[in-house]
Structures are given as C-alpha cells and as structure tokens.
C-alpha cells in the first residue's frame, strides 16, 4: 500500500495510476513489461487448458510437499524447544571471544535453522495456494465467457485482469528462490530472500535516502536505510504479538547491512576476479558452503527472541504437545 501511495503522489499530471489491487504482487514483472505483441497473443490465444492443467497439477504437488514439510518441522519446533539464554546472542558471542564461554549448543543452532526454514515453508505454501486459486480463476474466465464475472467487466477491464493473472502465474519470480544456494550476501538478499518485502524495503528505505546522501556514499546509506526499515518492521511484529522488545531484530538487520556493504565494497574492488571465481564450479560450491555456515551462525540472533516468547506455539501443528 505504501508503494502504491508513493506512486500515486508522484504521478505526472496526465498519468493514470492503476487500482491498488495491481500492487499486491509488486515484485513480479508487471503486465506492461510483457511486449505489446506478446500481450495481444496472450489475449487472443490465451493459455491452453492443457497448459493450465499441467500448471495446476505441478503446483498442487509443490503445495502438498511444502505443507508436509511445514507440518513436520512445526511439530518438531513445539516438541523440542530448547531453553534459550536471556543474554542476547551477540553478547554471548563476544564473551566467547574474550573468555571462551560457550555461546550456543549444536542443537540450538540446528533448531534455529529449522525455525527459519518453517517461516520460509509457511510463506511458500501460502503463495502456492494463491497461485493455484489464481490459475483456477483464469481457467474459469477462459471456459465460461458468459459468466457473471465476464459480463460485469468491460472488455478493457477483463483484458487487464487476464494479463494480471497471466503475469502472476507465468511471469513472476518465486517469493523465495532457493536461499540455501546463495553464493554471497548480495545474492541472498537481492535475488533469493523474500522478494515481496525486498521491494518494500527498497522503496521505503533505499530510494528515499539517495537524495540526502553524498553521491559516493549513496549506495551504502541506502543499504543501511533499507535494513533499518526491515529491522523496525520486525521489531514491531515481535512487540505487537508478544510485548517483547530487546532490539535484537533491529541489530541483526544492521549487522547484515554492514556485511552486505563490506561485501559490495570488496566485490567492486575485485569485480573481474570475483566473476571469474564464481564461474568455477568448485568455487561456487565453496561460496555456497560459506554462506550456509554464515547463515547457521547468525540465524540465532534473529530467531532467539521468538523462542523466548514461545512464538513456536502459534505455528500450525496437528499433534498436541503433552
């Protein structure tokens, strides 16, 4: 909604702004970016029923798979919740560096990793359901041209609605694009992690700060601003649901911003070498392993506040804990 309001306020005098519903899947390619000739072909020929049936069957399988994994992991979270220290995770890490005090157990690391996975699985599952419902709706429009929906809308409205559905179903990025295959922080946050929220943070944090920053530092301040918005949002979600505030969420995202800035600075200074490295299969595997290890040891910083609040009790489960 914020993005839509921003577009409405900044529109040119003669420009038209599409209704709010068009911004619901803001991270996808918009129908306007589908070539005009392709748009006409899609409207005249449509998507065949066989193609839609294959699409629906494929996403039913994905939906069922993610639901089973989600239910299993959610039950694990509730049944085997560890006792987490009240001392924030980064403080424990600093103490470990100074005096060798253990900062976390292997099981807690594994538990936090599963917890983060459950969050991904739940959102992917909801998105898959949305795709299935949308594909049935598109199939209904094609198969029943005299339906109430088709007769109530004008031709332009119906064409726009068809293109919106086609764009969502066939021209959209996945909401999570295999984050466990990330090769570096930039790849993780820009290409693989929550693509919907990413656009929100860029629009509300990154872009506005550019006009207030020195040219050479615009990108760095923009990254900090985007992650600041993310940190505030996550702190608000945790506080509103559990009345719990420690700023661990906020500092986690600032830490990630600093890591991303350092990575971008390093990559820009060694750009050609980095590209050559990434083309080598063994170095790709090395980078993926490094990112997974980095994620495993930083996820507790983000997840521990939820564990202390017993937030795992709010996830869907089908077996009651005794």
TrEMBL record:
Coiled coil: none annotated. It is found in: Membrane. One of its GO terms (molecular function) is O-acyltransferase activity. Pathway: Secondary metabolite biosynthesis. The chain crosses the membrane at residues 63-81, 101-127, 220-239, 251-267, 288-307. This is 6412_t:CDS:1. Belongs to the wax synthase family. It is a multi-pass membrane protein. Keywords: Membrane, Transferase, Transmembrane, Transmembrane helix. InterPro entries: Wax_synthase, Wax_synthase_dom. The lineage of its organism: Eukaryota, Fungi, Fungi incertae sedis, Mucoromycota, Glomeromycotina. GO terms for biological process: lipid metabolic process.
């Amino acid at each position: 909604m914020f993005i839509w309001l921003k577009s409405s306020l900044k529109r040119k005098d003669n420009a038209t702004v599409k209704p709010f519903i068009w911004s619901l899947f803001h991270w996808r390619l918009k129908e306007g970016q589908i070539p005009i000739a392709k748009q006409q072909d899609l409207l005249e020929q449509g998507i065949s029923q066989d193609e839609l049936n294959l699409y629906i069957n494929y996403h039913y399988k994905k939906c069922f798979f993610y639901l089973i994994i989600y239910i299993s992991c959610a039950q694990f979270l509730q049944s085997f919740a560890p006792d987490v220290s009240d001392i924030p995770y980064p403080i424990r890490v600093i103490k470990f560096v100074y005096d060798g005090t253990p900062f976390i157990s292997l099981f807690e690391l594994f538990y936090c990793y599963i917890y983060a996975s459950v969050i991904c699985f739940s959102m992917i599952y909801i998105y898959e359901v949305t795709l299935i419902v949308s594909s049935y709706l598109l199939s209904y429009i094609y198969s029943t041209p005299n339906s109430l929906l088709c007769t109530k809308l004008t031709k332009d409205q119906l064409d726009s609605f068809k293109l919106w559905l086609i764009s969502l179903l066939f021209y959209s990025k996945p909401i999570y694009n295999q984050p466990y295959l990330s090769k570096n922080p930039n790849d993780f946050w820009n290409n693989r992690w929550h693509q919907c929220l990413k656009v929100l943070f860029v629009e509300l944090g990154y872009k506005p700060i550019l006009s207030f920053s020195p040219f050479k530092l615009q990108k760095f301040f923009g990254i900090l601003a985007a992650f600041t918005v993310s940190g505030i949002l996550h702190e608000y979600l945790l506080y509103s649901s559990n009345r719990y505030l420690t700023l661990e969420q906020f500092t986690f995202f600032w830490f990630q911003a600093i890591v991303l800035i350092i990575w971008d600075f390093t990559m820009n200074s060694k750009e050609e070498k980095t590209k050559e490295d990434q083309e080598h299969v063994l170095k790709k595997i090395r980078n993926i392993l490094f990112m997974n290890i980095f994620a495993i040891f930083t996820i507790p910083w983000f997840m521990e506040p939820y564990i202390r609040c017993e937030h795992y009790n709010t996830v869907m489960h089908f077996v009651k804990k005794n």
